């Protein structure tokens, strides 16, 4: 017996044993099997891995008013990176009009709601220095106010 033939025999025997293990013990469990394995109950199968189940019309969960307001309020900062899918805007250092200190910001918009909880702002001064919490709060308030103004201008209440 050659090695290739022996390998085929082992594979065939393993497949037959696997198929035999799939057999039911009789018709007494048919009702139970049908009830437990309905598509609504079982969730997913191995074949679901091969289906393209992604929705091409998937909407990004970022509030457009907060996004645009963030870019407008912080327009004096050079934008380094934007990721609308995660809702993150990263800027470089810039000096506000009439200010003497430079800042950089990272903005995260985490929810489609026009709400203060949807906006996370991180400000950093030049050289990595900390920024007063009042300053961060004032910038957040300015972004939220501008976002509300943009929403009113849009006319979609």
From TrEMBL:
Taxonomy, superkingdom: Bacteria
**What keyword terms does UniProt attach to this protein?**
Signal
Indicate the secretion signal residues: 1-17
> What name is this protein filed under?
DUF3576 domain-containing protein
Q: Which organism is it from?
A: Paracoccus onchidii
């Amino acid at each position: 017996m050659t090695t290739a033939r022996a390998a085929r025999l082992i594979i065939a025997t393993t497949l037959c044993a696997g198929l035999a293990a799939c057999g039911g013990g009789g018709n007494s469990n048919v009702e139970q099997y049908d009830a437990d394995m309905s598509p609504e109950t079982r969730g997913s199968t191995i074949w679901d891995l091969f289906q393209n189940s992604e929705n091409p019309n998937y909407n990004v969960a970022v509030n457009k008013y907060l996004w645009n307001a963030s870019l407008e309020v912080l327009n004096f900062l050079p934008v380094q990176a934007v990721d609308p899918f995660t809702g993150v805007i990263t800027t470089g250092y810039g000096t506000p009009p009439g200010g003497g200190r430079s800042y950089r910001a990272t903005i995260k918009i985490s929810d489609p709601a026009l709400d203060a909880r949807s906006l996370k702002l991180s400000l950093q001064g030049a050289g990595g220095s900390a920024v007063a919490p009042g300053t961060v709060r004032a910038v957040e308030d300015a972004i939220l106010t501008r976002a509300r103004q943009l929403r009113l201008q849009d006319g979609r209440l």
